[in-house]
Each structure stands twice: as structure tokens, then as C-alpha cells.
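S1.2 Input.
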Amino acid sequence: MSDRQRADARRNYARILAVAEEEVAAYGAGASLEQIARIAGVGSATVRRHFPTRRALLEAVSHQRIEALAARARELAGKRDSRDALLEWLSAVVTYCVAARELAATLAYDGAEPDPVHENTCSAMMAEAGNPLLQRAVQDGAVAEGITVADLIALIVGIVLATEHHPDPAARADRLFRLAVAGLSPQSREAYPKARRKASSQHFAPSSDLLEGPTTLDKRG
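S1.3 Output.
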């Protein structure tokens, strides 16, 4: 390939990606690839050459947001309370997924769409970012053993996709996330020092208008 062809390919890629970001923001993960090609002024074959599958396109669109979440996980790794650190990161994931319509769909891919060349790098990045937070929380007895980052991301994706068409998706997703949090941690009071239980419940205990009666988190205070 000549230098001119490489330059043209780079320009096409940048133009397609810019258009894809706008179309996905407007129409979600189901944005038309043909429409993206038309607006970008290229043929459908050119779009397919750069992005062989819809998943590859969505991952490219989502990559910057995934990097931001990974950076946030690294920042929280030094937080003293491991449970607070994990939940703060997961809350950020919920917020990003609600705001970025393609992100939840990107993370939801489970291999149903064959793509031997492009693995789900976004899911891999999320697992790499979140696993240190999760493992530290498990070691501290703040989160039950056997839970994986993939489990938590699947839970968040389900919440976000289920609330996508709600009149207030952000509030609805936050409510469901807090309901889920009430079941994340071990119920044993001995598993969590009293001072830390109190500090955590102040930040993450579901408010009274979200749950009726005492919850796992409420009992810790």
C-alpha cells in the first residue's frame, strides 16, 4: 500500500468513526451502517473493511469511555475502604452506560456474533480494570466470594438495557443498582468491622424511599 493509500485509509477511518459516534449517540447500538457510510461519503464496503462487524464499530466508538472508566478504577485502587472503592467504580459504570447508549450494548456482546479477528476488547479492558478493586473487596470480606467482574458488568448491562426507555433512565438505573447493592455483601456482621460498616452504609445504603424495611446495608449501621 502506498503512502497516499495509507493516508486515505486513515482519513476514511477517522471520518467513519466520527459519523458513527454521532449516529450511535442518536440511534443507539442499532444505528444503520449503511447510513453511516452514506453520511461519511464512503461505500459500505469501506465501512466493513475498517469495521468487519457491528461489534467492532461499537467497540471503537466506546473505547474512549472505557479508557476513562479504567483510569477511574486505577484512581480508586488506593482508596482505603475497598467496598466503597468498588461500589464507586460500579456506580460510574452505570452512569457511563446510561449516558452512552452504545456502551451497554458493547459490553453485552457474548460471542453471539462471530468475529475471530476482533475480540471484545472493551469487556477485557473492563475486567482488567475492575478486578483489582473486586479482589481487594473480597479479601476484606466486603463482597461475597465467587463474584466476578463479568457478573457485575452483566448485572449493570441488564439494568441499563431494561431502563433504556424509561422516562428517567438515570434515576431508574440508579434505583435498581442500589437494590442490587443491598445483596452484594455478606450478611455476617463479623465480616465487616463496625467502623467500616458505618462509613460504607453512609455512602451506599439505599435510602428509605428505595427499599421498604431493613436491608443488608441498613443492618450494618
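S1.4 Remarks. The longest helix spans residues 3-27.
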